[in-house]
Each structure stands twice: as structure tokens, then as C-alpha cells.
Design a protein that fits this description.
Length: about 900
């Protein structure tokens, strides 16, 4: 049976309409994007065959002399293993123990040998003479892992090496017009696959005694995705083919005799007012011809909608590549007064400019045109802080980093739809920086486009880690760095360059990046230059976050922390999709631990113990529901403790942190803000609440209430209130205070809550923040136990233990009204919920399900897993893509003490 995968959407124009009203923007018009029908709904049929099974000459593979009748369907972009699973050759790796090395179900590259995963991929396309004749035709190959030979109509037209290299191949001389062209790509795996480290073997990296990250370290000799072998946050024994394949798109475009590439805009902002910006624009002009013809050319540029045009005459000889520069000294129109500045999320608008460039011959014929977007902003950082920790500044203002570590889909089952969903969740959470961890990948142009539009800064690392060796071939490494920097440097969201994760650097990297860009900061590795090392990574007693003992390495809520986090259990629907029912309940430790990095995050031990503090469960549904309580508590506590200590506020100086991590690379029981299937957990909404721009919050150690402001403006005469409810939903006490909130600051410990000694064993806290007109602008809801905290090595405390009596909470009744509507490509459900009972409605969950009770994914809920006080109302909107809608669909409303409601939306 073929495994369903998320579908790619093919880009064929500058602007291609995507789901949810998003547009993927490309730098030029493509004649074709060669995405496969299988797996992507593309327009091209791709097939693949193991190279050593082919009989005949290599030169014939890209001709009709070799038939593909016995070849199997291929997913392109994709990997060899993606296609083998799709064709049913091997089972789904993300299910149960299928991927486990010891299961012997999927051959491993290290053991089977490189030839085993060396494959030919082949497709066909047409080249109508009206579109291609008398034009230069280019094959743009965006990424192949790891080495490739590229053949067209019996001739080799190019080769590539390194996962992150983009190539433009001139295929003009090899095309046949008005007939079928046959493209064949021979893909070789990484040079050195590496494997798991033998038990007791010597570790290479920084975490000598913490599992065997990076396997035996050999994978690092390649310029590739190092997390394919093998890490404690994914499959510890890795991905079987090391993601061999054509993992990014192949496109075809045409130009005249010359072509434009890699436009780049450097903006220099005046200080201190940031009210004048000087633009320096460059573009590469390439003459691929080796004849004696010299071209006299005009390059024209326009910043669209700004009445800014410029041009330059250029002479280009045979085979020449030239960088053409437009400076503000030479072109004063490139000086922009009162520029529209780009800001991160919650700090201002994400203003963007569009630049069009074209090259013409002396007769005025356009030979090529190219498009790019850029933003005008300054992102810098320094260590001029009380503890020498690194602090970032945007347009002259300090910004507290509420960041995260980004992990790519581990088998590169990527799509624009998946990218959009994950980044929309990220923005919804209030995160302002993403780190591309050094063992992952550099994401797509569309990824950066969305970060530009959503206001999410990007810290990018260049594919090296302290747990693995350095690349063996320096030329491949530097070529891949060069290609990547040229591809991503125009994006205003790109904030920082780092060579590696917890390691050193290749010797020329800093100079190379400075030469190619020069507008961003750089540091050698992720734990230097004012950035200390990370942790915790696994489950801890939640009270440890408040007392700053969550890491046994010492204080971690201080300075800049690159890795600090905790897990969250997926919803029961997701759990059912990753293993057999018999392994779900009672919990099969072997199966659960395998998807938890061999139990690294303690899901079957401490996390389970904490779930059981809400009462022992009788089935997986009950356990999964309680698991959301623990996950939400994990996330809210972490974000709020960091909130309290932002910059000059709190108990210490903290400039920011990067959550480790928030998007699962595989199906795993140690999920994060959402499951691999794109189903959010309660952790997403807990984070969304904790990171709301104006936010009241409670400290479980100090019993104090504080207010956090993320905006670059102050607020006066606001009021914060706290109401305490017992287990009978009776209000026990109220407290309030009037406050003036500083710009991007914290009102610390506004007041304390004094809990009566005779209060119920479990009770609830409702916080509200009201503006100067009495409107609610922020809120919070907590549950708390009377358990006394006895220290970090215990299972005790008001966040962690003693919640068994929550089962005594009386039933609540919710009145639900809803309406549906459609807009463009989206389907909306508008829901109003009213708690008409006298009991708190605890942990209300909304679901959009099909008739088989499977969530419709991805869907976007403005809020979920929320609690309502008696008489309290809430409005929630659910949005999903119309093409995802089944014929029958249902709105589900349920909760801890709420009778399940099912509403048909047919």
C-alpha cells in the first residue's frame, strides 16, 4: 500500500497562489518546475531505478534506448527512501519500531554499502521551439544529496556535490525542440555515511556522557544534514538512506545570450534617527558564451512603487561573469528618506520592498529579468551587558529574544504547505527568532519569505556540530556556503550567521561570509561570544524552572541560552497514528522510548509520573488528556520565567533564549508545540498565552504577579487583577493594582497572592490586565495544588504533584454557537462558547474532525485547550484549507469536566 505524504505545490510563475492566501514568490518566471505527479501533484512523471540493476551504457540512460517500463515511481523532490516507502518496498519508518536498526526492516546505508542507495532518476519534458529556440535554456538544480551526475539526451551536462549547492546548467546545446527531452540524474549517497557509535566508544563532542549524538562522528565529513545519524531528539540510530536524493526542485528557464543572478541590496541606515537609508545594489551578470562576441548591455533597475529607477551600461566579453554595482553615491535616487522599516513580530510592521532588474541589448531587447524582495532594517548584537552576554538590537532598540531551535522534517518530506503551517504556528506562538541548528538544513526560499512576512528572525548555522567531524573536502564546503549565502542574504529576517553547533569553524568561513554579505553579525559557534551552553532538554520537576535549577550544569535562565526546553505529549489521535494500539496501552516502553531518542526526554518515566499526579489512568485517552496538562505547564512555566528576567528586569540579566525545540522532525511521543502530523498540542496555546505582547503572569515560587510588555511603547494607568477560585469554583479572594508598564519592560512582583491555609487541595487563579479604559488586553489562567515543594530531586510542588482531586471538579455546561464561511481558498468556523454553569470548564478542547474522527490538518485555531470561569464567554475561529475538507466534517467540543458535544458542519 502506498503511504500518503504531504503534497508539494508547484511554482510556475512569479506568484503562485497557495493555500490560506499565501503567495510563493520566485526570482524569475520558470518555463517548468519539474515536480513529480507522485507525492506532489506536479506535472511530471519521474521514475527511479537502482543504478547497479541497469544494463547498458551510462550514456544511454537519458535516451529512449533504455526503457523505464520496469522502473518504479519516484517522488521528486524527495529522497530514495521516500520513494521506496511510497512504492511499498519498505514500511513507513515513522511507525512503531519499523525504522529501528535492530528490526532489520529497512537496510542501512553503512551496512548495505553506497551502491545500495545509488539510484537513477529520470523524467521527460517538452521544449516547444516557439519558447526555446534561439534562447539560452538553463536547468536550475536547487539541491541534491549528495553527489550527482546530470544527463540530458545522452550527454552529461553537469555534476554536483554537497547538499546545499544550487547549480545553473546551460543545456541549450543538448535540447531537442518539439520532441521529448529525457533528463536523467544519477544520485550517489554521502561519501561517508557514518553509523551509531559502538557501546562504550569514545565520544567526539561536547556531551561526552549524554547518549551517542552524531553516531561515530563520521557523517560530519560530508556537507549534509548531520541529524540523519543519530541524535537523542529523533531516531538515535538515524535515517537509513541518509536522505539520498533530489531533495529540492529542478526548474527550467530561458534567457537571451546573457543572464542575471544573485541580486543583493545592502541598506545603510542613518543613526540615531534611522530616518535615512542608503541602498547599494549589486547583481551578477553572466555571459556563458565562449565565442568572440562582445555584448554592449544596459542593466535597468526599479524599486517598484517607489519611483526609483536606475540603469548602467556594461560591456561583457566571452565567458565573463561580472558583478554590477549601483551605489548611492553614483545614484542618489537610491537614498530613501523616512524608509519603511522592517521589524520583528510585535515590534512594528514587516515592511518589504520589491526590486526588479533586467538586462537589455543595445537594440532594447530584454535578455533576462530577475526579481527580489528586501527589507530595510538593522540587526546587530553586542556583549556590552552586565554579564557580557550577547544582546540583539533591531533598528537601534534592544530586543529580548523569544526564540526556538528549528529541526527539519527528518526524511525531507517537505512542502510549501508544511512550511506555511509550521511557521504560522510559530508566529502564533509569539516567537521572534528561529535558529537553524547546525545538524539540520538551510531551509527553502519560501521559508525565508514567510519569515520576512511574519516577522521571525533567523539565526543560521552551516552544517557542522561538536559531535561530528569536520567536512573532509574544503572546496565542497566553501562552495555550498557561497551558494547558500547568495541565496538567502536578501531576506530581512536573516539576522545572524554561525559556523557550527558547539564546535569550531572551517578556517576561511568568516572572511568568506563577510565578503559575500557583510551586513550581519557572525560568530564561530553556538556557544561562544556571549552565548553560554544549553540545557535542560528533558522533563524536570516544573518548580525547577522557577528556582532556576532545571539544569544540573548550573544557572541557565541568564544571559543568552541557545537551548532550553521540555517535551509535551501528543494528542491521542496522533499517538494512534504512530504505533499499534497494543503498544499504546499499557505503555510499551520499548516502542515509546524508541521515538523518544531511546527515552532521552523521560516520557515513560518522569513525564508519566507527573501525568499520574492527576490520578492513574485507565486507558490511553485519559492518559493523553492528562498529558496535555503537563505539557502546557512545561511550556508556560519556561516562557514566563524567561519573561520575568528579560534584559534589565528580574533577578538577573537575560537577553533571550532559544527553546529546544518546538517542531518534531518525526512522529514521536516527546512532541512539542505540535505533532509531526501538524496537530497542535496544548503547549502551543500555552506558549501563545505566555508570549502575548501584554501579559500578566504568576510565579509559583514567589506567589507573585507580574506584568510583561513586549511592545516598544509604555502604557499608563493600567490595572492587573487576580481572582482565586477553589475546587468548587467559588471565588475565595480578589486582588488588584494600578500600574504603569515600561516600554518593552516588566512590572515585577506587583503583588503577592496569599493562599488561605484551608483552601482546597487544587485551586485556580485567573489574572486579567485591563487598559486605562477598562478593556481586557491580556489574561491568564492557572491551576495550583497545595503540594509542598521539597526540592529539585523530588516529585513535589504546586506545579507538579497533588492534582488527584481535580477529578472532583463538578461538571460544567457549555453553550456553543457557530457559523461557517468560505473566503478565497480557506474555510472558517466561527465559534462562540459560553460557560452557562456554575463550575469552571477546565481544559476545553475544540476539534475539527472527519467522519473517522481524524483531525483535519493543518487547521489553525485562534485558541484551544482553554478554561472558562462560570459565566465566561470565548470566541474561537478555526481556519483550514478548502481542499482539505472532507464531505462530512464535525466540530467537537470536549474537556476535563465537560460532556462531549458533536456538531455536524455538513
Amino acid at each position: 500500500m502506498k503511504i500518503k505524504v504531504l503534497l508539494f505545490l508547484v511554482i510556475t510563475l512569479f506568484y503562485t497562489r497557495l493555500s490560506y492566501g499565501q503567495e510563493a514568490k520566485t526570482e524569475r518566471v520558470y518555463n517548468a518546475v519539474l515536480s513529480s505527479r507522485d507525492g506532489h501533484e506536479g506535472q511530471f512523471v519521474w521514475k527511479m531505478k537502482k543504478a547497479d540493476e541497469l544494463v547498458g551504457k551510462t550514456e544511454d540512460v537519458s535516451t529512449s534506448r533504455i526503457s523505464t517500463n520496469d522502473w518504479m515511481s519516484a517522488i521528486v523532490p524527495g529522497t530514495v527512501l521516500n520513494s521506496l516507502v511510497y512504492n511499498g518496498v519498505y514500511p513507513e519508518p515513522y511507525y512503531g519500531l519499523n525504522n529501528k536498526l535492530a528490526s532489520n526492516l529497512i537496510p542501512d546505508l553503512q551496512h548495505a554499502g553506497r551502491d545500495f542507495y545509488t539510484y537513477w532518476f529520470r523524467t521527460e519534458f517538452e521544449a516547444p521551439s516557439e519558447n526555446f529556440k534561439n534562447r539560452k535554456t538553463w536547468l536550475q538544480v536547487d539541491g541534491i544529496n549528495y553527489r550527482a551526475e546530470i544527463w540530458l539526451n545522452g550527454s552529461m551536462v553537469g555534476n554536483m556535490a554537497g547538499m546545499f549547492y544550487q547549480e545553473h546548467l546551460d543545456i541549450s546545446d543538448y535540447l531537442v525542440f518539439d520532441k521529448t527531452n529525457i533528463l536523467a540524474v544519477k544520485v550517489y549517497p554521502v561519501d561517508v555515511p557514518g553509523t551509531v557509535r559502538p557501546k562504550g566508544g569514545k565520544a567526539i563532542g561536547a556531551l561526552n556522557n549524554e547518549f551517542q549524538n552524531g553516531g561515530n562522528g563520521e557523517i560530519g565529513k560530508n556537507v549534509t544534514q548531520l541529524m540523519t545519524v543519530g541524535w537523542d531528539f529523533t531516531f538515535l540510530d538515524g535515517i537509513r538512506d541518509r536522505n539520498t536524493g533530489i531533495w529540492k526542485e529542478i526548474s527550467i528557464y530561458t534567457t537571451g545570450d546573457v543572464t542575471l543572478r544573485h541580486p543583493f541590496v545592502k541598506s545603510d541606515l542613518s543613526k540615531p534617527g534611522y530616518n535615512l537609508s542608503r541602498q547599494t545594489i549589486s547583481v551578477e551578470l553572466i555571459n556563458p558564451n565562449n565565442n568572440w562576441k562582445t555584448h554592449d548591455l544596459i542593466i535597468e533597475g526599479e524599486i517598484l512603487g517607489e519611483n526609483i529607477v536606475f540603469e548602467k551600461q556594461v560591456r561583457l566579453i566571452r565567458g565573463q561573469q561580472q558583478e554590477v554595482l549601483f551605489t548611492p553615491d553614483e545614484y542618489p535616487q537610491l537614498i530613501i528618506e523616512d524608509p519603511r522599516l522592517w521589524w520583528p513580530i510585535n515590534k512594528g510592521e514587516q515592511e518589504l520592498y520589491d526590486l526588479s532588474l533586467r538586462v537589455k541589448d543595445k537594440s532594447g531587447n530584454t535578455l533576462d529579468s530577475i526579481f527580489t524582495r528586501f527589507g530595510i532594517r538593522e540587526i546587530i548584537s553586542n556583549t556590552d551587558t552586565p554579564d557580557r552576554s550577547r544582546t540583539f538590537y533591531v533598528n537601534g532598540k534592544p530586543i529580548f529574544i523569544k526564540g526556538t531551535n528549528w529541526l527539519p522534517e527528518n526524511m525531507l518530506r517537505n512542502s510549501n504547505e508544511r512550511t506555511y503551517a509550521e511557521l504560522r504556528y510559530t508566529a502564533q506562538a509569539g516567537i521572534n527568532m528561529i535558529r537553524f541548528w547546525g545538524g539540520g538544513i538551510t531551509e527553502s526560499d519560501y521559508f525565508f519569505q514567510l519569515c520576512d512576512e511574519m516577522g521571525i528572525m533567523v539565526w543560521t548555522e552551516f552544517w557542522m556540530t561538536g559531535d561530528t567531524k569536520h567536512p573532509a573536502n574544503k572546496n565542497i564546503y566553501y562552495n555550498n556556503v557561497t551558494s547558500t549565502v547568495k541565496r538567502i542574504r536578501n531576506h530581512p529576517s536573516l539576522a545572524y550567521y554561525v559556523s557550527s553547533n558547539e564546535s569550531t569553524e572551517m578556517a576561511e568561513t568568516e572572511n568568506l561570509i563577510h565578503k559575500l554579505d557583510g551586513t550581519r553579525g557572525y560568530q564561530m559557534q553556538s556557544e561562544c561570544c556571549g552565548v553560554h551552553d544549553g540545557s535542560p532538554y528533558k522533563q524536570v520537576n516544573i518548580m525547577r524552572h522557577y528556582e532556576n535549577t532545571a539544569s544540573d550544569r548550573g544557572s541557565r535562565i541568564d544571559g543568552f541560552n541557545p537551548e532550553y526546553g521540555a517535551p509535551s505529549l501528543p494528542t491521542v489521535e496522533c499517538l494512534r497514528e504512530m504505533m499499534d494500539e497494543k503498544d499504546l496501552w499499557p505503555i510499551n516502553k520499548e516502542v515509546w522510548d524508541y521515538s523518544d531518542g531511546n527515552g532521552f526526554h523521560l516520557m515513560t518515566s518522569l513525564y508519566t509520573d507527573m501525568v499520574n499526579e492527576y490520578g492513574l489512568s485507565d486507558n490511553i485517552e485519559e492518559f493523553a488528556e492528562k498529558g496535555q496538562f503537563v505539557g502546557a505547564f512545561n511550556y508556560k512555566s519556561i516562557w514566563e520565567v524567561w519573561n520575568y528576567n528579560k534584559l534589565k528586569y528580574g533577578d538577573r540579566y537575560a537577553s533571550g533564549f532559544l527553546f529546544w525545540y518546538h517542531n518534531p522532525p518525526i512522529r514521536q511521543v516527546c512532541a512539542r508545540m505540535w505533532d509531526w502530523s501538524l496537530e497542535p498540542t496544548a503547549a502551543l496555546y500555552a506558549t501563545q498565552n505566555a508570549c502575548e505582547p501584554l501579559h500578566p503572569q504568576f510565579d509559583y515560587l514567589k506567589n507573585s504577579v507580574s506584568v510583561v510588555n513586549d511592545y516598544y511603547r509604555a502604557y499608563h494607568n493600567y490595572k492587573v487583577t487576580a481572582d482565586l477560585y477553589d475546587l468548587n469554583s467559588k471565588k475565595i479572594l480578589s486582588k488588584e493594582a494600578h500600574i504603569n508598564i515600561p516600554e518593552s519592560g516588566v512590572c515585577e512582583d506587583v503583588f503577592q497572592i496569599d493562599f488561605p491555609s484551608d483552601i482546597s487541595s487544587v485551586h485556580f487563579i485567573k489574572l486579567r490586565l485591563l487598559d486605562d479604559k477598562g478593556n481586557e488586553v491580556g489574561s491568564n489562567f492557572y491551576w495550583r495544588s497545595k503540594s509542598k515543594y521539597d526540592g529539585k530531586n523530588t516529585l513535589s510542588g504546586p506545579t507538579t504533584a497533588g492534582f488527584q482531586d481535580l477529578s472532583k471538579l463538578k461538571q460544567s455546561k457549555l453553550d456553543v454557537n457557530y457559523a461557517t464561511r468560505e473566503e478565497n481558498n480557506s474555510y472558517f468556523v466561527e465559534i462562540e462558547i459560553n460557560n452557562s454553569s456554575g463550575s469552571i470548564a477546565f481544559f476545553t478542547q475544540l476539534q475539527l474532525l472527519d467522519e473517522e474522527d481524524i483531525p483535519i490538518r493543518p487547521s489553525f485555531y485562534t485558541d484551544n485547550f482553554f478554561s472558562l470561569l462560570p459565566g465566561e464567554k470565548k470566541t474561537v475561529t478555526i481556519e483550514t484549507d478548502k481542499k482539505r475538507l472532507p464531505e462530512k466534517r464535525y466540530l467537537i467540543v470536549k474537556g476535563w469536566n465537560i460532556k462531549k458535544q458533536t456538531h455536524s458542519l455538513d
